[in-house]
Every structure is written in structure tokens, then in C-alpha cells.
């Protein structure tokens, strides 16, 4: 019992979390806090506040784990929704609009990234992902990480809704191939 | 059902991204519950986005972990050996059963309607006897009215008896995106395997079209017969269920029915 588990199957992890097992929560934090924190930072644009929201979100995950239903989807999807919604609520409570004004800046940045073409020999996974058509990657980031609706993205970027939808779909299919899933 | 077309429609991507309407959400959850290939694609998409997010991880400061964990209380080793979460899981079917009982008892409407119809019928009958002495022309009209009332009363009695029968499994099929206000209830007698439909609300089928009932057995749709065109306010007897279905659904098909359901024309669906 005292041996520290370094790897869990999703099923075991969920069962241990539901038993309120400390080690399972430590594993959960080590494995996923970075991904969740990154999403919170993207929404808030303020690392200090992001830490508070990260704290709230993780405690919320801990408190409401009994309501997580594996039949409805993977644990990470559920946790990401909690983290993203906490971040969006925090932005709204400050009376700010969730960083829609940063979209153009975002677009500039992804275009710069697009000009970086690594040679095939040094092509690692990250580069492959970065190499996704930038406009598609941006759309996935805006919707998945930052919680925009597809309608908002369409309006702000002046891209027809149908195009937004099909680009996001293609991007996910590309990602699926990259990650070999 | 053409699950490939459904998978390719892009709705699963939208579901995973969290941008679907509550109805679409219900639909995806229902279909992924029924069709293993839909579930598999959904899990693949979720894993993809998970890998993507892990790839973009940005670790919070080390001190944050201690700060968060200081606010949490965990089970002691002893507690863990107790199978506590099983209790939590068991409570779910119980509450579902309660809801079902609640639905049944919240439906004395049928009984009330039956009683009301019987009273009306009695009144109309005595009035009819009086009228009989007057004109023959009116007689025919009254006979027709009586027949309608009799049918309604019988119908309500029948419905009430199904809802009260403990062998009958009640499967509520809420409306999907096509017609969210629709409600059809499938009454499946698990002893006799008979299946009846109580159509509470369903848009009128357009000319040349007819509704068709399906069950999903082992991920495959099974034809349960077409709905009579005058389904409104009637209890319809459908084909017998030969196996244990995972769900019931109704699609709009060409008149006379189709060999396999048209997914885009699915109006209602309910999990067993």
C-alpha cells in the first residue's frame, strides 16, 4: 500500500481518486497541473491570478470527483472544463471580456511560428504540432484552451462559421495522426 | 444506422471542444453509449486533445502544490480498504428508480382522464337515451361521439394499466434537435416482450413519410415496425422485442419504413 505508484491506468486512477486517496491526487497533480495551469494562464493572461484560479479549480476537482462519470468521457476532458470555466468566471468577475482583443496579437504570433521550418531530422513531436497549419492551430487553441465559441471566433476573425468548423475538424484529425491515436 | 456519416459530421469534435448545445450533448452521449464505434472515435479525440494539452503544459510554481494540498483532507489507509465509493455508485440506480416511480405516481393524470372520460361518457349516454326519442339523425351523431369517448376511455385505461404493470419497463424518449419538444414513451413488457408506444408529442409526419421505431441491440439497429399515421393520442402496439435492447429510437422514414434507420432524421431517443 505504501509503495508510491508512478503510473495508473485511467480506470485505477479514477477509482483511487473517488476513494480520496492522497497518492492518487499527487499523481493527478504531477501529471496534469501543467496542462491545466497553461489553459488557465491562456485565459487569464496574469500568472499571479492564474495561481489562485488553479488552486480553486484543483480543489473543485477534488470536491466534485464523485460527480465525474467515466461513461461520459475521459477524466482530463472533465477536469479541463472545470479549469477553463473557473478561469473564464474569474475574468468575467473582473468585468473584463475574456481576452477577445488579443486575437489579432495571437494571430501575428502564430504566423511568425509558421515561418519556422525545422529540418526533418530534428523534427520532434512538438515541432510537428507547431507545424500544423497555423490558422487551424490557432482556432483549436482559441476554442479548446480559451473557451471561445466557434461563433465568436468566426465573428472576430471574420472567417465564415462553416470554415471555422471544418478547419477545427481537420486540425483535430491532423493531431490525431501526429499523436498516433 | 450510418455511424460513419455521424462520426464524419464533425459533431464529436464539437462535443469534445465543449461547444455543442445541451440537446446535441445528450445525443452524443446517447449514441456513444449505444455504438461502440462512436465511443471509440470520441475517446480517440479526447486522447488527442489531452496529448495536445500535455504538450503545451506550463508548470505552476512548486509552492502552489503544497498550498493546495494543505487545504485537502484525504482518506486514511483504513478508510481506503472500505469500499466506500461503491456505495456512491449504488445510489445512482436507486435514485433513477425513484425518479421512475415519481414519474409514475405523478401521472394520476391518466387515471383522472379515464375517470373524467367515464363520467362524461355516462352523462352523454343518459343524454343520448333521452335524445333517442327525438330524432334519428342526431342518433347517429351521438353514436359516433360515444364511440370516440369510449375509445378515449379505453385508451386511457390501457395506458394506465401499462404504466401500473411492474413488468413493464418505461423508456422515456425525449426529443432530439429535430423536434426538441417531442416526447414518446416506449412501454416494454419484459415478460411478454410486447412493446407499446405512448406518443405524447411528435410533429405530424409529412406526406409520403412515416415514423419508424428502432431498438438498438448489440450496437445494431433492429426494426420495430412503423407508427400508424394516426398515432396522436393512441397507444400503438409495435413488434416484439426479441433481445434486450440498449435503447429505443424513432426516425422519420419513407412511407412503409426502411430497412435501416436514417440517422439525420432521428426525432426521439431513450436509453434503456
Give an overview of the whole structure.
The complex is a heterodimer of chains A (181) and B (272). With 181 residues, chain A is mainly α. Chain A has nine helices and no strands. Helix content of chain A is 69%, strand content 0%. The radius of gyration of chain B is 26 Å and the shape is elongated. Chain B starts with a helix and ends with a strand. The chains are: A mainly alpha (181), B alpha+beta (272). The interface between A and B is large, with 54 and 45 residues. Chain A: This is RNA polymerase sigma factor. Chain A: Pfam families: Sigma70_r2, Sigma70_r4. Chain A: One of its GO terms (biological process) is DNA-templated transcription initiation.
DSSP summary, beta strand count of chain A: 0
Could you report the average pLDDT of chain B, rounded to the nearest whole number? 82
Number of domains of chain A: 2
**Strand coverage percent of chain B:** 15-25%
Output mean pLDDT of chain A: 78
Radius of gyration of chain B: 26 Å
CATH class of the largest domain in chain A: Mainly Alpha
Looking at the overall shape, the CATH architecture of the largest domain in chain A is: Orthogonal Bundle
Can you say what the CATH homologous superfamily of the largest domain in chain A is?
A: RNA polymerase sigma factor, region 2, helix turn helix motif
At CATH level 3, the topology of the largest domain in chain A is Rna Polymerase Sigma Factor, Chain: A
Compute the CA-based radius of gyration of chain A: 18 Å
The biggest beta sheet of chain A is recorded as:
none
H and E string of chain A:
HHHHHHHHH
Strand count, sense and barrel status of the largest sheet of chain B are: 4 strands, antiparallel
Helix content of chain A: 55-70%
CATH class of the domain at 168-271 in chain B: Mainly Beta
Backbone shape of chain B: elongated
Number of strands of chain B: 8
Could you tell me the CATH topology label of the domain at 168-271 in chain B: Immunoglobulin-like
